[in-house]
Amino acid sequence: MTPATPRSPGGFQPSDPDYAERVRASFGRQKVMAFLGAELTGIGPGWCEIRLPYREELTQQHGYFQAGIVGAIVDNAGGYAGYSLMPADASVLTVEYKLNLLAPADGELLLARGEVIKPGRTLVITRGEVHVFRDGRMIHCASMQQTLMTLHGRPDRPAAGRKEKGS
Question: What confidence category does residue 93 fall into, taking pLDDT thresholds of 50, 70 and 90?
C-alpha cells in the first residue's frame, strides 16, 4: 500500500523557482539521513515526504522503530517543507518541535510528511505526521508541530572547516 502524494496543502508559492533542486541537494548532504537509510520521496511548495524502510538496527527493545528515529525523519520532513518556501540565499534550522507518539512504530516502512502551517519571514511553523505500514495497513503513529528559523543570507552548505565527501 502506497499513499498518494502530490498536493500543496496551503497553495504556497516558493520564492525560489529551483526550490526542489535545492532541497534535494541539501537532503543529499544530510549524512544522518543516509546513515539511517531514509529517502526523500516527495517535495512540493510547503510540503515534503520522507520514507524509511525497516532495519533491525533502527529498533528499540520491542523491535519497533525507536522513537528518536521517528522524530528524526519527521523533523527533516517538516524542515524541508519549510525550506522549500525559503529564499535561495537562506538555510534552515529547527528551533523546536513537539512529538506525540500515538502508536508503536511497528511495521515495514515509516512515512513522514511535513507541511507548512504558517510561513513567516524568520519563523516558519510546520506540522508533520508519521505513518507506519504493516501488513498492508497504514497506521498513524506520530504527530509533530515544529518551529523553524530562516537563516537569511546564509545559504545551505557544509559547516566551515568541513569538507563534503569527495572534495
Answer: very high
